[in-house]
Amino acid sequence: MRLNFDPNFYRSIQVNSDTDYLLLRLRQTHDIWHIVTGFGVDGMGELQLKAFELSQTRRPLAIVIILGGLLGALFSSPLSLHSLWKEIVTAYNLGKNTRPFLAQKWELAWEKPLLVWRQELAIVHSNLEN
């Protein structure tokens, strides 16, 4: 609750296909992915999460958002591009080496400690707080 996450932030969508279900599930669990990965909710954290998501789901929208972030940095602070790119690549690689987040039934294990989730999913990177 510290970050004021709202599970009903996104508008509800009708589920009429597998694609609809996947999009709904991505929306429902977006904030959970932030918490479990340890990526912040600032601009950098969103780009990191999109890179992680891209490696896990191959979702085209993730590419668009990452490219938008890179273009924004190019125009606003070009000297930050190297470090931004490094963070994006690191997050992408983390997603490749982590168990699938879409396959998790988060709502069936709210009582499971965050550290246990991270261990089970093989989330390992230097930005994590325990």
Automatic annotation (TrEMBL):
One Pfam short name: Coq4
Alphabetized InterPro entries for the sequence: Coq4
Keywords: Membrane, Transmembrane, Transmembrane helix
TM segment ranges: 61-81
Any one GO biological process: ubiquinone biosynthetic process
Record has Transmembrane helix as a keyword: yes
Superkingdom as given in the UniProt entry: Bacteria
Protein's name in the database: Ubiquinone biosynthesis protein
Organism per entry: Microcystis aeruginosa (strain NIES-843 / IAM M-2473)
